[in-house]
Amino acid sequence: MLTVQGLKFYYHPDITILKDISLELAGHDILCLLGPNGTGKTTLLRCLLALNKIKSGSIKIDGCDLTKISAKNRAKMMAYVPQATSMAFPYEAREVVLMGRVAHLPTGGRPTHKDQELADEAMERLGILHLHRSQFNEISGGEKQMVLVARALAQQARIMIMDEPTANLDYSNQVRMLKVIKSLAEQGYSILMTTHLPDHAFLACNKVALMRDGLLMAQGLPDEVLTSENLSKLYAAPVCVTKADLHPWEGEAKVSIPIMN
């Protein structure tokens, strides 16, 4: 359980970035954080990862104050999946995944045979073991994102913080990533993900939170929170939430459509 209560953060006292943020993330939860650019989503992630020191409020993991947990133990509890990017050095994909084992190694220690097995298992689980000798900087965006998720799996942390895991991915890889995220939640992982696509909350998440100007406007079930009114307020632009007939497949799904007027 990740619990955030009354979180406040600022770089300068006159300009508060995050204001009274409260949320909960339990096992099997996928919480989708939505909001316009510059609203504080990334700052919130940095606070959850203890990269930013909060000014008031609390962040607890299983009832333990985040500030009382060592960096090494935090890494055993919580993993971070950033947006896919290039590495400064020419690491192979398997080497990147092995980095997830650092929290479990003694200072200056080298990965053991067991660590290497866990890295391979994580890659095999995501269907990317064939990339183990590939240069990370030379594989596709979708493949990079899968490698970063594999790194988080190898880390063996039960809470995953994902910063726009579907950014810059085509439809096929977006669906593939969302299926991986849903599968992890079914296995008991707790996942907080940011995205700019409300439809992803309908597809994969059981919780959603709307953030604007450092405040949570609303949070709850996607079907209840993601309304035309709420999304239009969130993005300060007209958005219509409607149902789509999934022809030729059976059924229907909710979708959000920005309106140009």
What does the model show?
With 261 residues, the protein is an alpha/beta fold. 32% of the residues lie in helices and 29% in strands. The protein has helices spanning 41-48, 71-77, 93-98, 113-125, 141-155, 171-186, 198-204, 222-225, 228-235; strands spanning 2-12, 15-25, 30-34, 56-61, 64-65, 78-81, 159-163, 190-195, 207-212, 215-220, 239-245, 252-258. β1 and β2 form a beta hairpin. The model has no long low-confidence stretch (mean pLDDT 93).
**How many distinct beta strands?**
12
Rounded mean pLDDT is: 93
Strand order of the largest sheet: 6-7-8-3-9-10
State the helical fraction.
25-40%
Low-confidence parts, pLDDT < 50 over ≥5 residues? none
Characterize the overall form.
globular
Strand content: 25-35%
N-to-C terminal Cα separation, in Å?
43 Å
By secondary-structure content and strand pairing, the structural class works out as: alpha/beta
Q: What's the gist of this structure?
A:
With 261 residues, the protein is of the alpha/beta class.
List the topology elements.
Blueprint: E1 2-12, E2 15-25, E3 30-34, H1 41-48, E4 56-61, E5 64-65, H2 71-77, E6 78-81, H3 93-98, H4 113-125, H5 141-155, E7 159-163, H6 171-186, E8 190-195, H7 198-204, E9 207-212, E10 215-220, H8 222-225, H9 228-235, E11 239-245, E12 252-258
Parallel strand pairs: 3-8, 3-9, 6-7, 7-8
Antiparallel strand pairs: 1-2, 1-4, 4-5, 9-10, 11-12
